[in-house]
Amino acid sequence: MSPLLMAALATLGIPAGLTLLFGVLPMLRRTGKPAAILSILGATSVLGIAGWLFATWLGNPTEVIQQSTAWLVQAGRPLGEVGVRLDGISVSMLLVVAVVAWCVQVFSLGYLSDEPPNGLGRYFTYQSLFLFSMNLLVLAPDLMQLFIGWELVGATSYLLIGFWYPKPAAAKAAIKAFVVTKFADSGLILGLLVLAAQTGSFAWDAPLGTGVAEVVAGLLFVAVMGKSAQFPLHIWLPDAMQGPTPVSALLHAATMVAAGVYLIVRADPIFAAATHVREFMTQLGAFTALFAAIVATVQTDIKKVLAYSTCSQLGYMISGLGAGSLLGGYFHLTTHAFFKALLFLAAGAVIHAVHSNEFEDMGGLWKKLKFVAIAFVFGSLSLAGVPGLAGFYSKDLILEAVHESGDHFALAALLLTAGLTAFYMTRAVVKTFLGQMSHAAEHAHGPGPSMSLPLLVLLVPTIALGWAAQPFATLFGKPYEFHMGTVGYAAIGLGLGGIALGYLVYGVGALGFLPRLFAPLGKLARSSLMDELWQSVYEIGGQTPSRAAAWIDRYVVDGLMNFLGWLTIVAGQQLRKLQTGDVQDYLYAVFGAAALLALFGGWR
Amino acid sequence: MNLEMLMQDPALWGLGIATLAFAMLAVSVKNLVHAVLWLGMSLLGTAALFAKFDASFLAAIQVLLYVGGVVVLLIFGVMLTREHDNLAAFRTTRRPVRAALVAIALFVGLVHAILNTPGLGDPSAGKLVSMPDLGMSLLGPYAFAFEVLSLLLLAAMVGAVVLARKRDPGQPSAKKLIRHRNLGRQVVEGLAATDEVGQ
Amino acid sequence: MIAILLIASALFCAGVFGLLTQKHAIGVMIAIEVMINAANLVLVGLGQHKGAAVGQSFALFTIAIAVAEVVVGLAIVLLLYRSRGDVQVDEAREMRQ
């Protein structure tokens, strides 16, 4: 086995081993901090291995190493393949996951310093489990293993959202996230079944007919909609913010929600053949981007702003992938992972400082949290698409691709979203760091070194990753040439305009009608309208068949059983009358039978 | 003299029909003592039929055992279980029509079966079993059965004694007696009691 | 030959009739004797017809068994009489439940 494969297996084995260790040794887990340090050491080694693998692949971008073994062989046919597949896509994704996970784990050490040791140990157990699951997903050689990793990250997401489970809102949010994503995952299962029925394997590059490809891609996309929080299955993501902020950074911004995008990138041979599904993806992604951006402009909770922003950016990625730009979608995934993790961690530092998520408890924090503010501002600028920063390059790729696909509605929606993104991020920056200091903000304290270091680490790719687009594209095996078209200039203009407008409205206080204009729209979107819609869908679509089934069960199935029981009893009572206890009655039967036998016994 | 000739023999038919008539009387007369006596007559008729078949030993046994033993025993039984002075009063039949229908149906069925069984009309083997033949048979191939039969008779006698023993108030019931471990001892006592009765 | 069988059948059916109609336990035993007798008649008749000693041998056994049966049966009748006060078979239906 080559050292590269060994290394890849180590990225799975180390976190898995740590999870098991914490699982079977409660003594170790309950020590809290030592367990956390152990977990971080594991994450560090995974980071090192991922970095080495990435460096190797930068030197030889087109290499593909796949080592897998048949799993659950039955009747000579395996259920699927398990193993690792190392290529440009999985190695770069592995590095993204490793970096963000490492940053988040280190950050958590400071962020959760007030947790009891028991809880801290549990938290880092989940973190290790997540790292294992995500690596399993990323390194999957076929869709079967990807599905296993997919479900495992879903389960970990449930555990981490509900980390503060005594809080009813957190417990409910965890269940909601789980149920919504599981509902969507049924699409993945069905898609896999159709795929396996058609090709006999779960490989994503088996040739498929167009019709089958459309079906499989459509079903897979349902799962993507759930995992990557696309309208109308986005409803779980804002609620998921009930989890600890580092968790939101890792799972619900950078990596797990990007798994949907990763799935589309991996299963590109299937999606490439499904033109209708891709058209739909473009439109739905653009709509989600715009919708979530509008909702984000009226949120009063800093994490909710970032959550809707995540929805919006995931919409960007989906839209780009739908338009056929694999590189655009995937590159945006990468840059977004870094700057959104940075934003979330910075927001986490702010929340840690003021002990609140609400903007009204913030304001004027620039003076207290200078470094955090710088990090947050750079993250925002990157997200807003300011030229030179990472987000600009990846967003530009998507916009160009959608422009080329000729989908004007999607392009318009995405451009508008670009402006809105800049606008609401400026709003968030202004409300958090500028203006009047609130009462809580006056007592704010700066982050410790374990919280500052991850911010610093994430700041680097947030600023500089865009310049590395060229080598990234070679990893992907796609040509990349940066050029500024009309769309690019429009996006820059809208982005800068959005920032200016945001500053005017919230920083200076001018143009007061604009927030009022947005208010009803936002209220509509923020209300539980979507939840109620899903509720009625559930009642009509889910409960009606259930009631019908219950009725059939009660009156048909049970009725049949009751009838049989009644029949048995009645037959028994009737038969009992034959047992008179009178010998001569029995003798009648004996001789009657003898007579019948003699008469009709066939004496030949 | 063989059976084919017997078939033509009106004496056979006469004896047979007489036996049947006695039997019918035995199962239908009101008076139980009369019924037992009619049974005796029927058994005598059968014995006569045996004699007619040249089975004279069987005929003798029939008279000795049945007429001399069984009939007497039955009369004893009637006497012992009498609950009214008028024996005729309590011996009534039940559902005679139904029973007659079943009996006739069975008879028709049997006749049907007999007439439809091949080989029954074959001529006789022409050889009649004599008394020495019977003795050779009983002590030859059927010796074991013969001995077992004597055991059976012994067991029947012991069983009858145990069952019919009059229970003293302090003594266990027949049921308990059978369950009792010292069954053997009880049997011996019972036999001793019969001996006393016999003396 | 067939005549013997027919007579025996008729005898047997007379016994059946008695068995089905008798209310008195001794009446039942009488009927059973009639039936056994019919069987003996067939055994002896067939044995002589075929010239086989087995017929008479078994008739002899049957007679012995019938005697044993009468002995035990009478004992049972006595027991029944003692425990119930009468010997009406149609009254004795404790086996019903």
- The CATH class of chain C turns out to be Mainly Alpha
Oligomer classification: heterotrimer
* First-residue to last-residue Cα separation of chain B: 48 Å
> What top-tier CATH class of the largest domain in chain B fits best?
Mainly Alpha
Identify the biggest protein-protein contact and residues per side.
Answer: B-C, 93 and 72 residues
Q: pLDDT average of chain C, as an integer? A: 84
Order of helices and strands of chain B: HHHHHHHHHH
Largest sheet of chain B: none
User: What is the number of independent domains of chain B?
Assistant: 2
The CATH architecture of chain C comes to Orthogonal Bundle
**How many strand elements of chain B?**
0
- How large a portion of the residues of chain B is in β-strands, by DSSP E? under 5%
CATH fourth-tier homologous superfamily of the largest domain in chain B: NADH-ubiquinone/plastoquinone oxidoreductase chain 6, subunit NuoJ
**Dominant shape of chain C:** elongated
- For the record, the count of structural domains of chain C works out to 1
Q: Tell me the β content of chain C.
A: under 5%
Helical fraction of chain C: over 70%
Q: What profile does the largest beta sheet of chain C have?
A: none
Spell out the helices and strands of chain C N to C.
HHH
The helicity of chain B comes to over 70%
